[in-house]
Amino acid sequence: MKPVKHVIALDVGGTGMKAALIAEDGTLLHEARRATGRERGPEAVVETILGFAADLLAYGREHLGRTASAAGVAVPGIVDAERGTAVYAANLGWRDVPMRELLGARLGGIPVALGHDVRTGGLAEGRIGAGRDADRFLFVPLGTGIAGAIGLAGRIEAGAHGYAGEIGHIVVRPGGPACGCGQHGCLETLASAAAVSRAWAAASGDPDADAAHCAKAVESGDARAREVWLAAIDALADGLVTAITLLDPRTVIIGGGLAEAGETLFTPLRTAVGERVTFQRLPEIVPAALGDTAGCLGAGLLAWDLLATEVPA
Ligand SMILES: [Zn+2]
Q: 251 alpha carbon to ligand 1 midpoint, in Å?
């Protein structure tokens, strides 16, 4: 068999990890999933990741005729990509884990790129997903929380301290609901999938009702559901207009659980944003295309980018 050049792509979430071996043209040569085992503590999670990566390296040797040329890893929380350190991740209990160094050592010294999960997913959406080759875009996944990634000329802006793009913590309702970040009235407390689930559970009286149920009820003409839904969309439009005013993106890519509502979300959202802008140019507002594989595909892009910029020895 002719050896196939490839990289390891690994996306670490709170509970599960997605991995792939990816060829230079983007072909997925192998895919795998594994639990992080976070109930066993932060050190055990690091060891699980290192073991998973080593197994992926071995898979390449056995099935693809050679080991991976580089690895890209996306992790949650605060990431210092330049130092290759996972600075802080509340859901994994991490503080200052030198992930790039640990992975490099375990993988026999191949180059390793470390990225922030949402920024890495945004890189994939911008380059090969919904924003395909968009020069300036904003990626906003609406999930348990709301995060963001600012795409600029083929890369993602991380900010001076790794906090850029945190649109979920723009205060859109001063004095509003308390947020985990310590502020009140953050966008994330009003327009995340979790926030819509909470609001619809309260309004409908069904504790198990969630955001997807709310969207369904909106589609069937339920007035209470419509009220809950439009309140979230108003908050989201307020947050997006702040971001649009600062960044002037060409494309806004909306992902996460709430985006699965399709035009039930996008039609009123485009209207709400359009009603708010005055001098700002309206960006295209489009659904994400890569779903929950964005982080893993983006990790692969980080790895290939690393090889492309490496100075030959
Ligand atoms: Zn907040």
A: 24
